[in-house]
Amino acid sequence: MIKFAYFRSVFILLIALIFLSSCEALKYKPVDAKEYPPEPEKRVKKNLEEGRGFRLFGDDDKSGGNFEFASSNPLWRASLETIDFLPLMSANYSGGIIISDWYSGNNNNESIKITIRFLSNEIRADALEIKIFQKKCGIQSNCKITENNGQIVKDIKKKILRKAAIYEKEFIKKNKKKYLGKIR
To answer: Phi-psi region for residue 97, left (φ > 0), alpha (ψ -120 to 50) or beta?
Structure first.
Protein backbone atom coordinates (compact mmCIF):
# COMPACT_ATOMS: atom_id res chain seq x y z
CA MET A 1 0.00 0.00 0.00
CA ILE A 2 2.86 2.39 0.77
CA LYS A 3 4.50 1.63 -2.60
CA PHE A 4 1.27 2.45 -4.42
CA ALA A 5 0.92 5.82 -2.63
CA TYR A 6 4.58 6.58 -3.35
CA PHE A 7 4.27 5.75 -7.07
CA ARG A 8 1.00 7.65 -7.33
CA SER A 9 2.53 10.82 -5.83
CA VAL A 10 5.59 10.52 -8.10
CA PHE A 11 3.31 10.00 -11.10
CA ILE A 12 1.21 13.05 -10.23
CA LEU A 13 4.36 15.09 -9.70
CA LEU A 14 5.72 14.09 -13.13
CA ILE A 15 2.42 14.91 -14.85
CA ALA A 16 2.32 18.30 -13.09
CA LEU A 17 5.90 19.03 -14.21
CA ILE A 18 5.06 18.17 -17.80
CA PHE A 19 2.06 20.49 -17.81
CA LEU A 20 3.91 23.31 -16.07
CA SER A 21 6.87 23.08 -18.42
CA SER A 22 4.54 23.80 -21.33
CA CYS A 23 3.34 27.05 -19.72
CA GLU A 24 4.57 30.13 -21.57
CA ALA A 25 5.08 32.09 -18.35
CA LEU A 26 7.61 29.58 -17.05
CA LYS A 27 9.75 29.37 -20.21
CA TYR A 28 13.10 31.13 -20.25
CA LYS A 29 13.19 34.29 -22.33
CA PRO A 30 16.59 35.90 -22.93
CA VAL A 31 16.65 39.58 -21.99
CA ASP A 32 19.03 42.32 -23.06
CA ALA A 33 20.27 44.13 -19.95
CA LYS A 34 20.66 47.38 -21.90
CA GLU A 35 16.89 47.65 -22.31
CA TYR A 36 16.18 47.73 -18.56
CA PRO A 37 17.46 50.33 -16.11
CA PRO A 38 19.39 48.96 -13.09
CA GLU A 39 17.37 50.93 -10.52
CA PRO A 40 14.24 49.04 -9.37
CA GLU A 41 12.11 52.19 -9.21
CA LYS A 42 12.83 53.00 -12.85
CA ARG A 43 12.15 49.40 -13.91
CA VAL A 44 8.80 49.45 -12.11
CA LYS A 45 7.91 52.79 -13.72
CA LYS A 46 8.89 51.54 -17.18
CA ASN A 47 6.92 48.31 -16.80
CA LEU A 48 3.82 50.13 -15.57
CA GLU A 49 3.96 52.67 -18.39
CA GLU A 50 4.29 49.90 -20.98
CA GLY A 51 1.38 48.02 -19.43
CA ARG A 52 3.41 45.00 -18.31
CA GLY A 53 2.98 45.54 -14.57
CA PHE A 54 -0.10 45.39 -12.44
CA ARG A 55 -1.40 47.35 -9.50
CA LEU A 56 -3.33 46.03 -6.56
CA PHE A 57 -6.16 48.09 -5.05
CA GLY A 58 -5.82 51.21 -7.10
CA ASP A 59 -6.21 50.68 -10.80
CA ASP A 60 -9.57 52.15 -11.75
CA ASP A 61 -9.11 51.33 -15.42
CA LYS A 62 -11.70 48.71 -16.25
CA SER A 63 -11.00 48.31 -19.95
CA GLY A 64 -11.68 45.01 -21.61
CA GLY A 65 -8.23 44.61 -23.12
CA ASN A 66 -6.02 45.80 -25.92
CA PHE A 67 -7.28 44.87 -29.37
CA GLU A 68 -5.30 45.55 -32.51
CA PHE A 69 -7.54 46.74 -35.33
CA ALA A 70 -6.63 48.38 -38.60
CA SER A 71 -7.85 51.70 -37.22
CA SER A 72 -5.25 51.53 -34.44
CA ASN A 73 -2.32 51.26 -36.87
CA PRO A 74 -1.12 54.82 -37.51
CA LEU A 75 0.48 54.02 -40.89
CA TRP A 76 -2.71 52.38 -42.14
CA ARG A 77 -4.92 55.25 -40.96
CA ALA A 78 -2.60 57.91 -42.39
CA SER A 79 -2.41 56.10 -45.75
CA LEU A 80 -6.18 55.81 -46.07
CA GLU A 81 -6.65 59.43 -45.08
CA THR A 82 -4.02 60.63 -47.55
CA ILE A 83 -5.54 58.87 -50.54
CA ASP A 84 -9.18 59.25 -49.46
CA PHE A 85 -10.01 61.11 -52.70
CA LEU A 86 -9.29 57.95 -54.73
CA PRO A 87 -11.76 55.09 -55.19
CA LEU A 88 -10.32 51.95 -53.58
CA MET A 89 -10.21 48.68 -55.45
CA SER A 90 -8.75 46.69 -52.54
CA ALA A 91 -7.72 47.42 -48.97
CA ASN A 92 -6.38 44.37 -47.17
CA TYR A 93 -5.04 45.09 -43.69
CA SER A 94 -3.86 41.54 -43.00
CA GLY A 95 -2.11 41.43 -46.38
CA GLY A 96 -0.65 44.90 -45.86
CA ILE A 97 -1.73 46.45 -49.16
CA ILE A 98 -3.98 49.23 -50.42
CA ILE A 99 -4.80 49.40 -54.13
CA SER A 100 -6.76 52.27 -55.60
CA ASP A 101 -8.83 52.12 -58.75
CA TRP A 102 -8.01 54.26 -61.77
CA TYR A 103 -8.82 57.90 -61.06
CA SER A 104 -9.00 60.54 -63.76
CA GLY A 105 -10.59 63.57 -62.08
CA ASN A 106 -11.64 66.00 -64.81
CA ASN A 107 -9.22 64.74 -67.46
CA ASN A 108 -10.66 61.74 -69.34
CA ASN A 109 -7.44 61.00 -71.25
CA GLU A 110 -5.19 60.65 -68.20
CA SER A 111 -5.68 58.71 -64.96
CA ILE A 112 -3.62 57.44 -62.01
CA LYS A 113 -3.61 54.36 -59.81
CA ILE A 114 -1.79 54.13 -56.46
CA THR A 115 -0.59 50.98 -54.69
CA ILE A 116 0.70 51.12 -51.11
CA ARG A 117 2.43 48.09 -49.57
CA PHE A 118 3.18 47.98 -45.85
CA LEU A 119 6.51 46.30 -45.18
CA SER A 120 6.46 47.07 -41.45
CA ASN A 121 4.15 48.59 -38.83
CA GLU A 122 6.90 50.93 -37.66
CA ILE A 123 6.75 54.55 -38.76
CA ARG A 124 9.83 54.67 -40.98
CA ALA A 125 10.48 55.67 -44.56
CA ASP A 126 11.31 52.10 -45.56
CA ALA A 127 8.09 50.74 -44.02
CA LEU A 128 6.09 51.77 -47.10
CA GLU A 129 6.42 50.92 -50.76
CA ILE A 130 4.37 53.28 -52.89
CA LYS A 131 3.84 52.80 -56.61
CA ILE A 132 1.95 55.24 -58.81
CA PHE A 133 0.87 54.25 -62.29
CA GLN A 134 -0.23 56.70 -64.97
CA LYS A 135 -2.50 55.76 -67.82
CA LYS A 136 -2.54 58.06 -70.84
CA CYS A 137 -5.10 57.31 -73.47
CA GLY A 138 -5.02 58.70 -76.96
CA ILE A 139 -7.49 58.49 -79.77
CA GLN A 140 -9.56 55.27 -80.00
CA SER A 141 -8.65 54.15 -76.45
CA ASN A 142 -5.02 53.53 -77.33
CA CYS A 143 -3.73 53.61 -73.73
CA LYS A 144 -0.19 53.52 -72.38
CA ILE A 145 0.50 52.68 -68.71
CA THR A 146 3.74 53.82 -67.08
CA GLU A 147 5.06 53.79 -63.53
CA ASN A 148 5.79 57.19 -62.01
CA ASN A 149 8.82 57.26 -59.71
CA GLY A 150 8.98 61.04 -59.51
CA GLN A 151 8.44 63.63 -56.84
CA ILE A 152 4.78 62.70 -56.27
CA VAL A 153 5.79 59.34 -54.75
CA LYS A 154 8.11 61.11 -52.29
CA ASP A 155 5.45 63.71 -51.47
CA ILE A 156 2.78 61.11 -50.73
CA LYS A 157 5.19 59.05 -48.61
CA LYS A 158 6.22 62.15 -46.66
CA LYS A 159 2.59 63.13 -46.08
CA ILE A 160 1.67 59.61 -44.88
CA LEU A 161 4.67 59.43 -42.52
CA ARG A 162 3.95 62.89 -41.11
CA LYS A 163 0.30 61.99 -40.39
CA ALA A 164 1.27 58.61 -38.94
CA ALA A 165 3.75 60.27 -36.57
CA ILE A 166 1.01 62.62 -35.37
CA TYR A 167 -1.39 59.70 -34.83
CA GLU A 168 1.31 57.80 -32.92
CA LYS A 169 2.00 60.77 -30.63
CA GLU A 170 -1.71 61.21 -29.94
CA PHE A 171 -2.08 57.50 -29.16
CA ILE A 172 0.87 57.50 -26.75
CA LYS A 173 -0.33 60.68 -25.06
CA LYS A 174 -3.85 59.28 -24.66
CA ASN A 175 -2.79 55.88 -23.30
CA LYS A 176 0.12 56.84 -21.08
CA LYS A 177 -0.60 56.13 -17.42
CA LYS A 178 0.82 58.47 -14.86
CA TYR A 179 3.28 56.87 -12.48
CA LEU A 180 2.45 57.77 -8.88
CA GLY A 181 5.89 57.03 -7.46
CA LYS A 182 5.12 53.88 -5.48
CA ILE A 183 3.72 50.44 -5.98
CA ARG A 184 0.29 49.96 -4.53
So the answer is: beta
